[in-house]
Amino acid sequence: MSHRIAGSNLNPTHTRRAKSRRGEEKVPEPSNEQMLDLYIQMVRSRAFEEMAISLVDVCRIPGSWMSGIGQEGTVGAVGQLRPDDYLTYTHRGAYCFLSRGSDPKRLFAELLGKRTGCCRGKGGRHLADVEHGIFGKSGSIGGHAPIAVGLATAIQIRGGDQVVLSLFGEGASNRGTTHTSMNMATIWRLPIIWLCENNGYAGSSPAAAILANADVAEMGSAYGMPHTAVDGNDVIKVFEAVRPAIIRARSGEGPSLIELKTYRLRPFGEGSGPDRRSPDEIEAWKRRDPIRSFRRRLLARGILNDEQVEKIAHEAGREMEGARAFAEESPFPDPEEAFEDLYA
After folding, report:
1. Virtual CA dihedral for 190, 196, 202, 205, nearest 10 degrees?
2. What is the DSSP-derived secondary structure letter of residue 265?
């Protein structure tokens, strides 16, 4: 099974834009091969999430796990990054790692606090995988936005054409770090794609209770950057919205803001207490499950068949079982290792 999105290394010059009937430029859909690989990454992410939840339930993962089940449409954005690009993320979503090529063995080992983890067992769910350009999340909401600015500034100083994809939730859109970072990104024309995963709730607070404007994308107007909002449960719409922003950033034209309207199907954190959301609301969003809807589309187009569906699900499950076994068998760090890696 491929662990990379086909075509994720495309340069802007390799992506041609089609003209709509009105003469407007329109980003074409991903190829059939790309769509199949997008689906594979979404299924792998779901399999990872379900395994992580099961490990929380039996107290194998210290603390909690912030599940991204229901938000896998974000793969349409992450899967377009080149290997030398950078990513900062919010506190949920295995898709951030798996679409970038991270090894699920090392991810599970990290969650279990093992020495073989990608942070040597010292990060837990505060994951980072520098080898794959993932600089992790901050312990405070919105704290990773300045990191994105730092990474993008380094790219600019070096004269490269990499981009930074910085994910955040609608709750982080209220933080001063986010606003300051967006302002600096525009002033300095930094190659950042700000991607808001608006899942409707900041913790247990509905977005309507914390946002003066329900459309986070409108923040882009204040900072003079292109902005749009799309259905975050439609991976193709996510792909099409993010592609021009990547091209813009690579060509030195500065940042963009894209809002994904989505929903998390799991509680705020596994084992974090009762979910106070309406059961009817959750059920309604389950009917819009991004994986199921994408699978129906691929089956209808003949890009996927029932046999492939079963094979992909089986391989993803087997992969995560092997990753869990690796993590369970790995050693814990020695106590004296707590004083290592304190400084770069």
Report:
1. 120
2. S
**Structural contact between residues 146 and 168, judged by C-beta atoms closer than 8 angstroms:** no
Domains within the chain, CATH numbers bracketed? 30-264+276-331 (3.40.50.970)
Q: Output the six-digit token pair for 326.
A: 């690796």
* Segment holding 164, helix H or strand E: strand 164-169
Is residue 193 a contact partner of residue 247, using CB atoms and an 8 Å limit? no
Distances (CA, A) of 130 to 127, 140, 306, 340: 10, 20, 37, 17
Rounding to the nearest 10 degrees, give the CA dihedral for residues 161, 167, 168, 170.
Answer: 100
Report how far residue 286's alpha carbon sits from residue 281's, in angstroms, rounded to the nearest whole number: 9
Instruction: Count CA within 13 A, CB hemisphere, residue 21.
Output: 0
Q: Please tell me the distance from the alpha carbon of residue 103 to that of residue 125, in angstroms, as a whole number.
A: 15
Longest Cα separation, the chain = 66
For the stretch 281-323, pLDDT in tens is: 999 999 999 999 999 999 999 999 999 999 999 999 999 999 9
Q: What is the pLDDT of residues 238-247, one digit of tens each?
A: 999 999 999 9
Indicate whether this model's pTM tops 0.70: yes
Map residue 49 onto helix, strand or coil.
helix
Instruction: Evaluate the CA torsion angle 148, 66, 139, 112 in order and state its sign.
Output: negative
Token output for 340:
């290592």
* CB 99 within 8 Å of CB 2: no
